[in-house]
Design a protein that fits this description.
The protein has about 250 residues and is an alpha/beta fold. Strands 2-1-3-6-7 form a 5-stranded parallel beta sheet, with helices on both faces. It has a 5-stranded antiparallel beta sheet with strand order 12-11-10-14-13.
Length: about 250
């Protein structure tokens, strides 16, 4: 049974989320609710939650204030927000989870399923620490990405990625230094995350860093050559959109 703490300054939001959890999420018990950072800090001590649903904006406070003041982070964090904003990318790049309000039931179920996975307290703390590091950079183009691999968390600059390759439900990251990282997430998840940062899915199997293209060779779909001399096919279906993207991005 997962013990959940709900932190939100709006009573209606807290109660709505509590109802959704009780009605649709088996194996989860709401053990406490809080409307401020101070209340949340007290609730963490008294209820020892496994997962904290944390509102980003709470009057003059934020959910990040709570995390910054929390003496020990030994719980999963699921951010909740009504805003699709700069903070969301920082959260996603840090391998943390979030829900947009109004909360969708299926999204809630998926977030709880992720929260049920066991992580070491050190991994949880590292993700939160990394989130704060991402907030310190001058703009989102300098975010770094957390990769949860079988060997532990890897912290990379996404500009150092050459391309990502689909392998069933896994994604293989091919880096500029020739290293490879295997992550148990689908390529679609990383396509959604990286598309706004000069990445493009040229094929069902490949998501490439557009800055690493050396040349494009014409053909039915054609193929690209990357800076490491690797050639990757462009699917016929993606060709037109890909060439439009290249012509407007001014990358090559």
């Amino acid at each position: 049974m997962l013990k959940a703490l709900l932190v939100d300054d709006e009573n209606k939001s807290r109660e709505s989320l509590k109802i959704l959890i009780e009605d649709f999420c088996t194996g989860v018990e709401v053990v406490a609710m809080a409307s401020s950072v101070d209340e949340a800090l007290d609730a963490v001590t008294s209820s020892s939650p496994d997962v904290v649903f944390l509102d980003i904006r709470m009057n003059k406070e934020t959910g990040f204030d709570f995390l910054n003041q929390c003496p020990k982070i030994d719980f999963q964090v699921i951010f909740t927000t009504a805003y699709s904003e700069y903070a969301i990318d920082a959260i996603k790049f840090s391998a943390l989870d979030y829900l947009l309000k109004p909360i969708n039931i299926e999204d809630l179920k998926n977030s709880i399923a992720k929260a049920e996975k066991k992580y070491s307290n050190n991994d949880l703390k590292e993700k939160v620490d990394f989130l704060f590091q991402n907030f310190k950079v001058d703009n989102s183009d300098n975010f770094k990405l957390v990769l949860p691999t079988s060997e532990g968390l890897m912290f990379i600059n996404f500009k150092d990625i050459l391309y990502c390759e689909a392998s069933s439900n896994y994604t293989i990251f091919h880096m500029r230094d020739s290293k490879k990282y295997v992550v148990s997430k689908t390529l679609k998840e990383y396509e959604d995350l990286l598309t706004n940062y000069n990445f493009f899915r040229i094929h069902n199997s490949f998501l490439i860093n557009l800055r690493e293209i050396v040349k494009y060779v014409k053909g039915d779909g054609g193929y690209v050559v990357l800076s490491n001399d690797k050639s990757l096919d462009v699917s016929k279906r993606k060709k037109e959109f890909f060439l439009t993207k290249l012509s407007t991005s001014k990358i090559i």
